[in-house]
Amino acid sequence: LPFITELADGTLDPAIFRRYIEQDNLYITEYSRVLAHIASRFEDIDDMDAFLKFAGDGVLMEKALHSMYVSEGTREMSPVCLFYTSLLKSQAMFDESTEKAIAICDKLAERSDEATRARMTDIYVKASRLEWLFWESAYSPRPWPV
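Above: the chain's sequence. Below: its structure in token form.
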């Protein structure tokens, strides 16, 4: 993706970076809520604690991003950001603190039947595609057509 390449080599247009950060700030708000919701569904107290920490980290990141890059006033989510966060909320997918989240997911998958594991994989693939679109949309914005 040009966005990632230009971000890494320091040539990314500041306006593109701000657009991404503004949308990411909106994303993190919803993502933290999803993680807190996931935490509420765990019976294992250690898993619950881990996901509450993930959610808390998201809130801290949002505050830091807001203070550094996001101007005052509510921004509207782009179509991609709204679609992505809607998928996360509807399917409760996650990817923060990767190793711990993977361990918890693996433990849940071991306890699940084949149909549930297939659904978990399908949701992961959809979320990965939306992650790509989210990054790409900062570089090539697509506002609401109507």
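The first helix runs from residue 2 to 9.
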